[in-house]
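Quick one:
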Amino acid sequence: MKDSQVSYLATKLAEQLKQPGGAAGAAGPSGAGKGGSSTTGFLWGAATVAGLFLAAPFFRSVARQAVRGGLRLGMYAREVASSAKEELEDITAEAKAELYRNAPSGQDNVT
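Output:
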């Protein structure tokens, strides 16, 4: 959020607070209290938007770290799968070699 946008929101909030019957007597986000529900709703909405924009860089870094972790996990899983495949291919080759070695000479087509 740009500084000009934050300034604009702050100005609007100040105007709303200066109005008679503004949010000075509001009890909370429900609008219960002396203040009008539209004023209170506006204030809570503006505060929420401002908070989200201020927290956006934090959420972006958290999301980037999560994606980075997922990529690392994917690379590790690929390496493990490759090693397991290679190991199974070696075991298969050894088993075939034993079969051919132990087969009687008349059975050449053992697979």
